[in-house]
């Protein structure tokens, strides 16, 4: 019987399995389920997985057709005529998740995934490696935006989810959900209303970096006669320790409304910004030398500058053009639909690999067993972060100008 294997033998077997096999392992028997969640084993397993992948293999999570996939990307030999490798490692599902739950977008922070459900006012915080999930129902709001981050303390990290919306221009309301809280009565903060002089578009996806989240933002500037004279553009950060939005942070370029600007993190240490002009298709990627909630500095030279018109005669979509960079190879990988089709066709999800000296390649991301539409990607690094289990069915009422009700419901 598998359950009768000595612990050291079982550990030696299980530690060789890929991370995507852990869900199946936990269903084999109680002993294997317990072993797979043991802290000593999981540390060894994560170290083994990292060593097996190699230093130049990137791991990402991607939403395709409202499902979350784990993918590996290896660019090691692209400048030596070796084809890049992009592999589907599997569909991520939790231990008790129903496949009927549709995910519209996913964000990553410190091994936790923030999954926003489609057409339903709720979100899920999920550690795929540990198999832990916590589902939150929210109040329906117009075009809400989300972010996940943490506050460092002496003993532990306090993880939080930010949810905010802009009911009308210049008026923002936000609230925080406390992931580490064991008590349902302490799960949501009192909503706060602010009147910022900036605007974050509803489709803009924030990027988590060192526990805080950054967005591309703009201000509509008008002259004395009311005519539009241009836009100021900058970064805005939400500081999860201070629980507030920070000041404007400068950018090394100026964009107009039709241009594409999207963000990515680099090893959770630096911020990368992709900027593409809509008319010329000129593309630039800049990387910070310093980034904090209230200060930013940029490299003197652009990380990558490419004229995309001879390579692909369409601009990347601001709503789906997520990306990451490989600093050593001077390469960017942008995930988007095929701009040439102008529509979702079932075969139009691509990774656009763009490098120095004119390197360019399109890789079809479609799983043969699935249709494909609007890939949304973020980098992923597995971790042992634990998600607290609250008491089920708790309720809380808040009065802060409006009445709010909050209820924690069943786990996925």
UniProtKB/TrEMBL annotation:
Q: Which PROSITE patterns does the annotation name?
A: FBOX
Source organism, top-level taxon:
Eukaryota
State a single Pfam family of this protein: F-box
Q: Which residues form a coiled coil?
A: none
Family matches, as InterPro entries: A_thaliana_F-box, F-box-assoc_dom_typ1, F-box-assoc_interact_dom, F-box-like_dom_sf, F-box_dom
Q: Which SMART domains match?
A: FBOX
Q: Which residues form the F-box domain?
A: 1-45
Q: What is this protein called?
A: F-box/kelch-repeat protein At3g16740-like
> What is the organism of origin for this protein?
Camelina sativa (False flax)
């Amino acid at each position: 019987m598998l359950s009768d294997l000595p612990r050291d033998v079982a550990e030696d077997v299980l530690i060789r399995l890929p991370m995507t096999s852990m869900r199946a392992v936990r269903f084999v028997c109680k002993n294997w389920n317990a072993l797979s969640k043991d802290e000593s084993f999981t540390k060894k397993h994560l170290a083994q997985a990292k060593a097996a992948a190699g230093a130049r293999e990137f791991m990402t999570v991607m939403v395709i057709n409202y499902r979350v996939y784990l993918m590996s990307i290896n660019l090691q030999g692209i400048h030596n005529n070796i084809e890049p490798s992009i592999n589907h490692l599997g569909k991520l599902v939790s231990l008790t998740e129903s496949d009927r739950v549709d995910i519209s977008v996913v964000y990553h922070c410190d091994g936790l995934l923030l999954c926003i459900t489609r057409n339903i006012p709720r979100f899920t915080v999920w550690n795929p490696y540990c198999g832990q999930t916590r589902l939150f129902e929210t109040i329906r709001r117009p075009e809400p935006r989300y972010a996940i981050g943490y506050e460092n303390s002496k003993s532990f990290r306090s993880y939080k989810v930010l949810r905010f919306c802009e009911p009308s221009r210049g008026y923002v309301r936000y609230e925080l959900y406390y992931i580490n809280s064991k008590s349902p009565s302490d799960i949501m903060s009192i909503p706060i209303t602010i009147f910022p002089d900036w605007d974050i578009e509803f489709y803009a996806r924030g990027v988590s970096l060192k526990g805080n989240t950054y967005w591309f933002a703009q201000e509509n500037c008008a002259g004395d006669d009311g005519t539009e004279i241009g836009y100021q553009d900058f970064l805005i950060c939400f500081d999860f320790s201070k629980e507030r939005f920070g000041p404007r942070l400068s950018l090394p370029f100026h964009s107009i409304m039709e241009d594409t600007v999207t963000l990515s993190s680099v090893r959770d240490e630096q911020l990368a910004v992709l900027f593409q002009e809509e008319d010329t298709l000129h593309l630039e990627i800049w990387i910070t030398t310093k980034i904090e909630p209230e200060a930013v500095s940029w490299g003197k030279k652009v990380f990558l500058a490419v004229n995309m018109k001879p390579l692909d005669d369409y601009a990347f979509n601001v709503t789906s053009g997520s990306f990451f960079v490989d600093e050593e190879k001077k390469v960017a990988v942008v995930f988007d639909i095929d701009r040439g089709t102008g529509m979702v066709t079932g075969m139009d999800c691509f990774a656009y690999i763009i490098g120095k000296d004119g390197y360019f390649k399109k890789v079809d991301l479609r799983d043969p067993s699935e249709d494909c539409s609007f890939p949304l990607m973020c980098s992923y690094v597995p971790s042992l972060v634990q998600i607290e289990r609250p008491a089920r069915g708790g309720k809380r009422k808040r009065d802060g100008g409006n009445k709010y009700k909050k209820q924690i419901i069943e786990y996925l």
